[in-house]
Amino acid sequence: MIHSAWKSGLVWALALTWLVVFPKAASAGDKENADVLKLKAQLIKAQLIWGTNEDKSPDPKHRELEPRLKKRLQGVFKWKSYFEVNQQTFSVAPKKTRKIKLSPQCEVEVTNLGNNQIEAKLYGEGEFQVRKRQTLKKGEIFSLAGHAKNGTAWFVVFSQVED
Amino acid sequence: MNERDQLTVLAYVDGELTGRDLIAAEELITANSEAAALAEELRMSRAVLRTSEPEVTLPVSHDFYWAAIARQIEVAEPERVSVIERLVQPAFWLRYLAPVTAVAALVLMVSLTMNRVPVSDGEEMFTSPEASAVVFHSDEEKLTVVWLQSDENSDFATAESLGNP
To answer: Residues of B with CB below 8 A from A156's CB?
Structure first.
């Protein structure tokens, strides 16, 4: 009889302990995970760039590209001038995706895969064109590009932004 | 009386003995009172069993009785399903659809991998069926480029695309 009472008491004690301790532990774990996710969010700059051999762009809204990036593109591509059509800086949380419109025809979707890796999808007039996974470390740039009209070129350049 | 004699008495009562064995058994029963008692007991048991066994009388004729049993056996056998009934059973479709689905999945997988461009750094790339792409990397400029070879996107960044001449 006494044995059975002890057993029953032990079960109740364990149940109460679990009820009290488990929610606290779970919420602490959630908070910890959220902190980790927050820390690993990526701040990314996406730039739509037009490459041409003309000295000036016919579009007054186009801006001269920053000299450092211009030099890097000139080191790889044949075009003399590079103009920034649009640029957007955005934050992507780990395992999350952001869709950014860079021009009426051009949209990109960026997913933060974690560990400095992103997945970039390019859409042309709403149609999927290409998807690429890329490790994007600070100081490195990653570009989706192609030919444009009249021997010119377009570039969508992704880079990590320092917080 | 040993076991062999007991068996001899049993066989005698059951009428299984002939010739010399029969004479020997009769002699044994006559000479040995124990064997005689056993033989008598066995005969009595046999008689009791014969008279006490309940006799079952069929309420119907013999032929009718067996015909009813035969009908019950036929009913218990699995029903023969018609072709139409079989077609509406999900198990039938599962049996045929499972391999068809597996083959379709395989074909889909192969067709999807057709557009997969292997990249040197092991990072995968996919293009739309209309486009193709090449990837190159410049260590000096720390630049990776995916160059799309498609006319579809030629308006992305040109002045014309923004409504300018």
So the answer is: 156
- Smallest Cβ–Cβ distance between A154 and the set B119, B140, B157 belongs to B157
Can you give the C-alpha Rg of chain A in angstroms? Answer: 26
Helix/strand number for chain B, H first, E second: 6, 4
Q: What is the largest CA-CA distance in chain B?
A: 141
* pTM summary value: 0.51
Distance to chain A for B45, nearest Cα, Å:
59
Kindly tell me if the per-residue pLDDT of B60 is higher than 80. no
CA distance B152 to B142: 28
In chain A, residues with a C-beta closer than 8 Å to the C-beta of B116 are: none
What pLDDT sits at residue B161?
42
Q: Cβ-count burial of A130 within 10 angstroms (0-12 exposed, 13-18 middle, 19+ buried)? A: buried
Is any Cβ of chain B less than 8 angstroms from the Cβ of A87? no
ipTM: 0.74
Mutation target vs A (from B120, B141, B155, B156; most A CBs, 10 A cutoff): B156
CA A146 to chain centre: 21
- pLDDT per residue over B25-50, tens digit each? 999 999 999 999 999 999 998 888 88
